[in-house]
# Entry
Amino acid sequence: MSRFFIKQISVTGEKVLFSEVSFNDGVNIIYGPSNAGKSYIINCINFMFAGDPPFTKSSTGYDTVTMTMESDDGYAISMTRKIIDGKNGEVGENSVEVISNYPNVESGPYSISKNEYSDLLLKLMGINEHHKIISTEGFDSQSLGIRTLIHFFFIDEEHIFGKRTVLDSPSYSKINAYLCALNFLLTGDDSMHLMPEETKEERERRITERTGVIAYLNQKIEELSQRKAELEAREAVGETDAEGRIEELLSAIEEIENEIGTASSENRELVRERYEISTKIEEALFLKDRYRVLKSQYEADILRLQFICDGERKEDTIDEAVACPFCNHEIEKGTVAHESYIESATIEIQRIQLQISDLISAESDVCEGIDKYERKLQEIDDQIAEITNSINGELKPRAAELRQSVEAYKEILRAKQEIYAIDAMATELNTDVFEKENEEDGESAKFKGRELIDKDTWKVLSDNLNSMIKECGYPNSPESRLNIDTLDVVVGGKFKKDQGKGYRAYLNTIMLFNLMKYLEENAIYAPHLLILDSPILSLKEKKHKITEKEKATPGMRESLFKYIVNHYGNNQVIIAENEIPEGVDYSSVNLIEYTTDEREGTYGFLKSVKN
# Structure
């Protein structure tokens, strides 16, 4: 089975610089002053494990996070998720785009809400099937998802100094769910075989017994009786043949719709005929215009020929020139005979006048045709208007009125059906009341998640915790143990919740590291991963209002880091901290430093975000 670890986190967005951070398989420490983006990296990992957005795109400009995971045998899987606008602010997109060369994981979009993405992340831990686990004492069940397991290997800055046990979710308490999940990692058993055969409703009814169930059922019976009285008080409910009336009305509606269809077909035919007549009118108007132009041309020809004839007649009255107007030289009188055009022009004029007469006759015929077509067009328009008025003003309103009547009768049927259902429900509830009043009291069994994990496992976890606390420099090396009732550490007889914030962060870190090592060595399924934000709270005292008495000592901090570096085993550890203790050999560690100084080192994680 391939073991996967986080190789890279990168973020992008419009008009911002691409930012990334790379990790090794082993210990990775991100350190540097506050506001350098270290927690952004931790929160990006949480985001890619189906958590909340690590930052807002409105304040940073970044809206896309990609996490790349690699396996110890060379496979790679890249997951990309966007930050989008939601109804109440920015949220993480429900879909994650996956690119994979791992044979057991296909590339493509994976839904978070449908558990597809969670199942993918669990598959990288070797969990190949979707499981459900028992989540409450009352045997409620829920899907085993990555968010059920993440607090076993991930804790952020706001919760690392929490008072509650890290074996429970810091968001809300469902300790049975997380104990069941832990047992599944250890044994591969989801415990669903312990679910009672009875349903949840049956269990709740049996648990509540006589503490209000009978009163509740009686109240429901009374409410049903009141509802039945209201329905029966309606006048129309007395209609005996509502179904018959509905059939009659539907038949009448069908007849009207047929009439509407026939009228619409007739209307379409009239519209087609109107189009044809309009086309003929256009053609006749065009022809009439051509006749007018031709008549004008003929009249112009007649005027030209008459002009020629008038010229011929007046030629004899013009004095003939006897001298050249330029040189005054005497011009000899011509001897060429002149041919007259009057006769031929007169004949041509008579011919054109006959053509004009024919043209006037043809134009008159065209005008009569246009008048006939326009009268026909008006008749068609009147018919179309009559049919349209009939459809919109008579047939459709009648059909709408009949449909309203159908709905009224349907409402009557629904009321009758509801009355019938009320009678059936009231009878059933009455039977339930009778059975409840006559059944014997009994105490329901409760699911106890602590009992899933055997005492030997708790003993080994407790002994390992005791050894680690001593090796990590706790003052005076007190005896420590894991308390089964609180599922938390007790140091020197003092419960963790009673310690200061710095000590709680230190102890919570040891608890999770101890769990990681135990899962690595003994579990069927192990995350092989631990992500810690500010385990020693260095330079965070002011931010979290930590007093001097609450701080973990420098020796505790140094010893804790030494232990993590020397004992991480076959796991990946990612730590974010302001400053790292001196005196630790970091040669095998991937140190990632941010400076918030543009003149030295790497300024911060988000390259486009400055303090």
About this structure: The longest strand covers residues 76-86. The mean pLDDT is 85. The first helix runs from residue 38 to 48.
